[in-house]
Write a structure and sequence with these properties.
The chain has 3 helices and 9 strands. It is elongated. It comes from Xylanimonas cellulosilytica (strain DSM 15894 / JCM 12276 / CECT 5975 / KCTC 9989 / LMG 20990 / NBRC 107835 / XIL07).
Length: 139
Amino acid sequence: MSEISRATAERLHAAGLVWRPEPGDRFVVRTDTDADDVFTVSDMVVERHDHPTGTILGFNGTTEWALDSVRLEDALWLPREDQLRELLGGAFRSLARSTTGLYQVLVEVPGRPEQVFDGDDAAEAYAQALLSLVRAATG
């Protein structure tokens, strides 16, 4: 399964993509910029706890003994390829490989010409397309 880079995830977050953690979601701790540790939300290891003051990602058991919890604001979502495709919704038309080996995502938004977004892997191509749509919707 391909996944987006941390830099692309940061761009999606900065553009306004909202994350509501669900089991299976992958994330990194934003305050630990040098760490390569990717965590997965799971009912057994990392649970979402909603409080009036905000959402906390709680670490359970001995696997992540050094972390008790992380505020949602300090976590950076790394959406999977299937999640990115789902977020594109009805704008998504196709995914193909170019003759140069890049993945290309074709999107169409009513009232705008079709657009093609490239990436070294499918997740990055989906993310580039989504980034364009999020920016258009929030900008």
